[in-house]
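Journal club prep, notes for RB
We'll compare a predicted complex against what the paper describes. Inputs for the adenosine-5'-triphosphate case:
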Amino acid sequence: METTITPLRATSLGRAHLSYLPQRPPVNLSFQDLSYSVSNGKASKLILRGLNGEFHSGQLTAILGPSGAGKSTLLNVLAGYRVDGASGMICTNGEARDLASFRKLSRYIMQEDLLQPLITVQEAMLMAADLKLGNKLNKEKKAVVVDEIIDLLRLGKARHTTSERLSGGEKKRLSIALELVNNPPVVFLDEPTTGLDDVASSTCLSLLKRVARGGRTVVCSLHTPSARLFSVFDHVYVVAEGRCAYQGTSAGVVPFLRELNLPCPTTYNPADFIIEVSSGEYGSHLDRMVAAVENGRCQRWRDYGLEMENSGCGELDIEQLNSGVISSHTYEYESSGYEQFSVLVKRMALQTFRNAGYLRLRFGLHVFIGVIVGALFSKMGYDASKTLFNFGFCFACVMAMLYTTMMPVLLAFPSEVMLIKREYFNRWYGLKPYFAAMLVSRTPATIFFALLYLVIVYPWTEQPMEPKRIVMFVTICILVALISESLGTVISSTLSVVNSMFVGPVVTVPLMLLSVYGIGNGDDPIPIVWRLARACSYMRYGLEGLIAAVYGPPRANLICPDEVAYCENRNVKHFVKTMGMAGVSYWVDLGVLCGMLLATNLAAYYLLRQRLSPNYAFRAVKVIGQFIKTKISGSH
Ligand SMILES: Nc1ncnc2c1ncn2[C@@H]1O[C@H](COP(=O)(O)OP(=O)(O)OP(=O)(O)O)[C@@H](O)[C@H]1O
């Protein structure tokens, strides 16, 4: 379908005045014999059992059911968030769903409000508009779109508040607002009222109903809504034990149950009652309910009471739709890779500068470590009686570069991945622009802090003040810092914070030990296995590079203090030989470090891609991992 952008008239409902948004086709969603199972290594567990149903555009649909019934799973499968393990047919407008095309048309708002921190509502909305609408609209029109959505979701008062300071309800509304920016025809929401009080839930649901009235298919999974909230829904789909226990209007619930000889007490909330009945609190009636609605096939209750309520979708003035066909949609992003890159760099830079506390902490940390290292190795650069200690200084620099850059990544990146996952799934941007923006935005800070540390320690420890040696030393330190940062990204791109913090040291300690393996051996050869293992340690190349920068030829003999009778390591060449680094070339080390930086970044990119959309090999590895985990936990 050609996406045309025309100003839309205000709807006759006078509620959803959205101008300039791309017109989209209405999307009716239906599914037949939908099953979903998970394998836990030993056996597979059937979670959804042959469900059928239809969710129409212009309607607000609730998926209800007892806890553990399969509501979120159904939503995940319909949204395409979970694909493996699903069987059956999912159709859009009567035709088999094409997942890639469907993802472009649908948005999934997850239970947790994963919002970019330190960005105001207005900024977040404008950035979302830049990413999702590209250059099809000029700045002024994008501002109009943003203002209208902010008004629609009543976020005007919080316009200049940063996302972490928003209330629970405002966060939820911002999550919804961000996904409405390019007018998606289908919106899925997992538990949109969780954590909200009754008033906030009511506001949220009536806003969603307005969104639906704009012609979108809005589907939410919900726990037990109050009777007032329940009546807001146009369509209710009850799931119990992975089967459909009711499908129809909210008004149809009571007569449906009455027909099955399950009269709802007049003072009772019908939503609570149908959930209690389906969960077996009044005996086992689930089979009868499932049979009465033919596991979701029966349409008898679909329009029940709609004439009375005058709220059927037939009454709607759905102006934001046109008659396009979905299948001819292009799968491209609305904005170019470069546009995505520049918006993301701007967003990341803004977040970095606003995070003053973190910047101050990082600044303080580098100064603190610089002072400690400087004091420990004070004036040892020219002192022939302390040459061995000066070697220790070079090693300390490698360690400082390793831990000061890797640890923040291990701590912060796993949460960032969750955010990327949401935005990537909802097609805000591609991974390449994101990854490039991440590298561009974080590298200057890494270089700045490495320099801050070196400005303290280099002169304090009296290393040679020759410009060439300084540049060589600084370059190696920066490369070690950048590799450590990328290695942190490799580790944390697939692991949780806890696991990352565990795996980080587990990976780096052997690399650290290997970097000093064979030191002091002089010319004695070390076994090939250890040589090969040592070749994998970037810290080894870092250490060699620093030694070459400081002691590489031409360097005069060191000064032996008067009070010391004999300085064994006065001759630099002799010292380097004793350390087993006689044949070391600075340029080879530099080249290998550059290669390793490239390799770690490629690995980080690959793993992040697999985390966001895993290929078969990666999924197989995950299943094998789960299998091993089950075996291990089963054997205890
Ligand atoms: N990956 C999985 N492995 C094993 N069991 C799973 C997995 N995912 C879901 N389940 C099980 O499937 C059932 C349905 O889960 P789901 O999250 O869809 O329920 P729900 O209806 O949304 O529940 P709640 O209202 O409590 O959030 C639960 O019993 C859950 O334990």
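Talking point for the session: Residues 38, 40, 45, 47, 65, 67-73, 223 surround adenosine-5'-triphosphate (CB under 6 Å).
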